[in-house]
Amino acid sequence: LSLFDIVALRREFPILNQSVNGKTLAFLDSAASSQKPRRVIDCLEEYYRRYNANVHRGIYRLSEEATFAFERARGKVARFINARSQREIVFVRNTTEAINLVARSWGDANLRAGDRILLSIMEHHSNLVPWQMLAQRTGAQLEFLPIDGEGRLALDHLDAQLAGVRLVAITQQSNVLGTINPVAEIARRAHACGALVLVDGAQSVPHMPVDVQALDIDFLAFSGHKMCAPTGIGVLWGRRAILEQMPPFLGGGSMIRVVGLHESTYADVPARFEAGTPAIAEAIALGEAVDFLQEIGMDRISAHERELLGYALERLSEVEGLRVYGPTTTEMRGGAVSFTLDGVHPHDVAAVLDSEGIAVRAGHHCAQPLHAHYDIPATTRASFYLYNIPEEVDRLVAALHKARTLFG
Ligand code: PMP
C-alpha cells in the first residue's frame, strides 16, 4: 500500500483518529481483534434502521430482504475462500465455536478409543481444549508436532507421527510466533495416511489469500472480528460431502425438517448446523468486510504487513535485551511479533506502551503450552494489520527504550 493509499485507508477507520493518554492511538493489537471500517459500521446500522427482521421465516418484505442479505453474505464468504459452494459455509459465532462444532459432531461420531488426533504445540487453546475434551469422551489420543529453534513446525517425523491419525488440526498462522505453517504440504501427507485436516484460520484468513481448494483441506475455521467485521460472527467451512455426513451440533429451530414429539429429522447443510436465530446483522456486515478486504486485495494486504514486519524485526533488534519469539525473517511469517524484554515484566512493558498511546497485548495469548515450551509465563505482543504504518513501529521502539530506562 502506498503512502497515499494508507492515509486514505486510515481515514476509513474512525477509531484510529483519537488520542489515548495524550498521544495518537497506535493500535498494535489486531491479532486479538481488528478495528472496523466505517462501511462495516454503517452496514450494521443500516440493517437495524431499515430492514431488521428474522431470516428464513417471514413472508413479508423486511424478512425477505434480511434473508436475501444474509444469504448473499454467505456467498461472499464462499467466494472469498474459494469454496466450491456456499452450502459449505456454516455461520457460527467464532473460530472457537467452529472447532467445537467439528469436535462434537464429526469427532463424537467418528472417533474411537485408540484413534489419534495430531495437533502442534503452537496451537491456540481453542484448537486444543476441544480436542482434549473429545479425547476424554472417546478415549482418542492427542499427538503433537514439535517446533524448531526458529519457531517453525518440525515435520521431519510427520509421516511416522501420522500413523493411526484420523484428524490433523493445525493453525495456518501462529498468533504468538507469527509462523505460517505449510498447510498444503501437511494436508497432502495427512490425506495419504487417510486423515482429515482442519485448519485454524483465525490468524491467516484476515491477513493473506486463503483458497480451500488449493490447500486441499477438509475444514477451515475463522472469526469475523479479526477481519474488519463485528464480533459474534465466525465461519466453519467444510467439504460438503463431509458436512453432509455429520450429525447436528445444537438442536432447535431452523435446523430441522420435521419435528415430532419424540423424534425429528434434520435440515440439509448448512442449516443443520445453524440452530436458532443467527447473528444476522453481523453476518451481513461480515459480507461487507469481505468486500472491503477484496477491493484492497489480500495480496496487497499481506505484502503491506510483510513490509511492516520486516521493518519491525529490524528496528526491534536494536533494543538491548529484547528477544523476539518465532522466525526472525519475514519468510513464511505473519505480522504478530511476541517478545520479552530483559528485566521488565511483559505486563509492565504493555503498561509503558499504553502510557505512550500504543495498544499491545501481554500475557500467554491463549497459548500456555507454547509459553511453557519456552519456559516463560508471558510475552508482550505487537501485531500489525492493513492500517498500520512504519511510524507506529518507530513509536513502539522508542517506547521500549523508555521501558528499559524506567525499569533497567
Ligand atoms: N485460533 C487462533 C490462532 C487465534 O489467534 C484465535 C484468537 N486469538 C482463536 C483461534 C480464537 O478465536 P475466537 O476467540 O474468535 O474464537
TrEMBL record:
Residues of the Aminotransferase class V domain: 27-396
Cofactors, names only: pyridoxal 5'-phosphate
Gene3D superfamilies given in the database record: Aspartate Aminotransferase, domain 1, Type I PLP-dependent aspartate aminotransferase-like (Major domain)
Top-tier EC class: transferase
Its job: Catalyzes the removal of elemental sulfur and selenium atoms from L-cysteine, L-cystine, L-selenocysteine, and L-selenocystine to produce L-alanine.
Family: Belongs to the class-V pyridoxal-phosphate-dependent aminotransferase family. Csd subfamily.
Protein name: Cysteine desulfurase
Organism: Roseiflexus castenholzii (strain DSM 13941 / HLO8)
